[in-house]
């Protein structure tokens, strides 16, 4: 017997689907226009390389996100009409699908919810002229109110947020253009700080940031694909909503930071520093508008987390699981744990990079179609994820040192002068997940396919 999340799955019919420009492209573009994507981007990229290197890396990262992380899940969703947790049962098995990608998606969405709450709280306080410091009373009060209200909306009224989400995309886009206009005069004068130039670090860090940010959304391409009509919609929805959006939403802030440095308006690398340098009522209004534009991201993270938990653990009411997850996210936000965006992006890339790699391999091995759910736990899928995850987390501080101590080896696993070449680990984890899945599947570690209900 199939578990309920498969036995009760109903494919999205053709009559309820729409063209790419009505759903997938604006939805993905909205993800990249969220300020959490580009707020800390310049510190590990532009600080070490030229603006041209950074923009080229953005273009390549956008193409990689489309081809590697989005394409296969989106095609599976479009072909079957099923969401990620259903089509993922082919790669990880009907039992394995509970955890991967089912519950893992929900757990990581709690992290995204924490990031959204932290960023919105920080910008609200900056906008009203109050010192923004995690752990202080203003930060805790604002974060708790924001998180509780919007998690409740995500659980009970997400349809209302969805109706205005596309229009809210124009707010950050307008703000990005305003900031570029204010700082454009200094772009030609930007120079990488003396002693910090390393084009390889700048290039690969940019790719790692973009992929790490996008990895979960790439796997969720199945959920977007199930609302598309054909392969053309999959292609254009991805090229416009992902590749082009990465160039615009990532390129404009990086250009603004370069311009701010060239004009000596700001020497910080945080995009919030650039906004602050503009000063006056304009800067305050921008902070508040960026916070308003974070409403859909906060609500959708809470909704997806609750949907994941409710699908995989149906005995727990959706509202209860959503609010419980939100409570954890609020604590992470108000204590400042969610402030380290680059660390979080690394964890996301390590977690979902090999999932996307394994799904892409399964898709290709199955003749570019969905073969159906597989029995039990797929050792091919879980083996690919485990090895890919280890590769993906290697750049995290202390990981290599901890492994060296565990192995009781006096020789460093990776010499210090080669540490930079561990990036882009998120891309390596995808490649490893893909290759390991193919090898294990060829070795016979793919369980046999089981039939879906007749109605499917």
Task: Describe how the helices and strands are arranged.
Layout lengths: L3 H4 L16 H10 L1 H4 L12 H30 L3 H9 L6 H29 L9 H20 L1 H11 L1 H14 L15 H21 L1 H5 L5 H32 L8 H8 L1 H14 L1 H18 L5 H17 L6 H25 L13 H15 L5 H8 L18 H18 L14
Helix pairs in contact: 2-12, 4-10, 4-12, 4-17, 6-7, 6-14, 6-15, 6-16, 6-17, 7-15, 7-16, 8-15, 9-12, 10-17, 13-14, 15-16, 17-18, 17-20, 18-20
Query: What is the residue-mean pLDDT, rounded to a whole number?
Result: 91
- Overall shape: it is globular
Low-confidence stretches: none
Summarize the amount of helix as a percent range.
55-70%
User: In what range is the share of β-strand residues?
Assistant: under 5%
Q: What is the number of helices?
A: 20
- Order of helix and strand elements from N to C terminus: HHHHHHHHHHHHHHHHHHHH
Number of beta strands: 0
What is the first-to-last residue Cα distance? Answer: 15 Å
Largest β sheet strand count, sense and barrel closure: none
The gyration radius over C-alpha positions equals 22 Å
Structural class: mainly alpha
Question: How would you describe this structure in keywords?
Answer:
456 residues, 0% strand, globular, mainly alpha, 20 helices
Description:
With 456 residues, the chain is mostly helical. It has helices spanning 4-7, 24-33, 35-38, 51-80, 84-92, 99-127, 137-156, 158-168, 170-183, 199-219, 221-225, 231-262, 271-278, 280-293, 295-312, 318-334, 341-365, 379-393, 399-406, 425-442. The longest helix is centred in the middle third of the chain and has 32 residues, at 231-262. The radius of gyration is 22 Å and the shape is globular. It starts with a helix and ends in a 14-residue tail after the last helix. The mean pLDDT is 91.
């Amino acid at each position: 017997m199939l578990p309920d999340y498969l036995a009760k799955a109903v494919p999205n019919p053709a009559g309820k689907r729409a063209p790419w420009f009505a759903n997938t492209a604006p939805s993905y573009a909205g993800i990249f226009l969220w300020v959490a994507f580009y707020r800390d981007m310049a510190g590990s990229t532009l600080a070490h390389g030229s603006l041209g290197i950074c923009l080229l890396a953005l273009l390549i990262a956008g193409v990689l996100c489309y081809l590697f992380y989005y394409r296969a899940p989106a095609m599976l969703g479009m072909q079957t009409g099923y969401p990620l947790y259903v089509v993922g049962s082919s790669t990880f098995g009907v039992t394995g699908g509970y955890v991967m990608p089912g519950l893992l998606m929900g757990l990581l969405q709690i992290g995204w919810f924490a990031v959204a709450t932290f960023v919105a709280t920080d910008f609200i306080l900056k906008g009203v002229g109050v010192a923004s410091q995690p752990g202080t009373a203003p930060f805790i009060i604002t974060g708790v109110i924001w998180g509780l209200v919007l998690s409740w909306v995500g659980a009970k009224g997400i349809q209302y947020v969805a109706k205005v989400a596309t229009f809210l995309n124009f707010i950050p886009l307008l703000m990005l253009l305003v900031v570029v206009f204010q700082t454009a005069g200094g772009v030609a004068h930007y120079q990488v700080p003396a002693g910090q130039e390393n084009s390889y670090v700048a290039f690969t860090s940019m790719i790692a940031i973009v992929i790490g940010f996008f990895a979960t959304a790439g796997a969720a391409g199945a959920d977007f694909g199930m609302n598309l009509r054909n392969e053309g919609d999959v292609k254009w929805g991805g090229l416009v909503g992902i590749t082009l959006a990465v160039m615009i939403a990532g390129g404009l802030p990086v250009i603004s930071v370069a311009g701010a440095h060239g004009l000596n308006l700001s020497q910080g690398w945080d995009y919030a520093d650039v906004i602050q340098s503009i000063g006056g009522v304009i800067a305050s209004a921008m902070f508040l508008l960026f916070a308003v534009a974070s409403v859909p991201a906060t609500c959708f993270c809470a909704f997806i987390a609750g949907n994941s938990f409710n699908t995989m653990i149906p005995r727990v009411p959706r509202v209860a699981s959503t609010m419980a997850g939100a409570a954890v996210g609020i604590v992470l936000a108000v204590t400042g744990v969610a402030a380290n965006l680059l660390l979080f992006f690394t964890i996301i890339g390590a977690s979902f990079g090999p999932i996307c790699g394994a799904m892409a391999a399964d898709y290709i091995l199955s003749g570019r179609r969905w073969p159906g759910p597989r029995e039990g736990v797929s050792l091919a899928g879980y083996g690919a994820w485990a090895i890919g995850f280890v590769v993906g987390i290697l750049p995290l501080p202390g990981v290599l040192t901890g492994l060296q101590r565990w192995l009781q080896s006096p020789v460093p696993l990776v010499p210090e002068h080669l540490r930079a070449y561990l990036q882009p680990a998120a891309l390596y984890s995808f490649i490893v997940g893909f290759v390991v899945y193919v090898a294990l599947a060829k070795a016979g570690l793919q369980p046999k396919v089981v039939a879906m209900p007749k109605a499917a």
